[in-house]
Amino acid sequence: MTRRQALLLRIFSLWTAYVWLVLIWNIWHDHKPGETSIGFKGVHYTLAAISLALAITSWRVVTKVAGKRAVFPRSRARAGTARARAGTAGAETAEAGTAGARAETPRTGAADREKTQASR
Q1: Do 54 and 12 lie in a common domain?
Q2: Residue 30: what pLDDT?
Q3: DSSP 8-state symbol, 33
Q4: Alpha helices per DSSP H over 29-119
């Protein structure tokens, strides 16, 4: 997940919370007789609860992913070539040459990451 994607999800979460909290505030304080029925309020309170739960969940997932430093650059191949250009020696340079082959798979398993770190 890129930083831009994480930011977009956070903005979506905040906007959703704002819209539904304002709507619930307005419905709650609307005391005109006959304007809003019990069914209307019940349906909108339920929709608000579901939307707020999804917004909170979205925010927590983004925070968890960003907290694990899993915000990847757009291409792992670019990161590998940047290391090679930086002049790192030994196994890191050899590994940077193979970074392009791994870039085709969107995710590398935990076992593969451990092997890579162990070989350094």
Answers
A1: yes
A2: 80
A3: T
A4: 38-67, 76-85, 91-102, 110-119
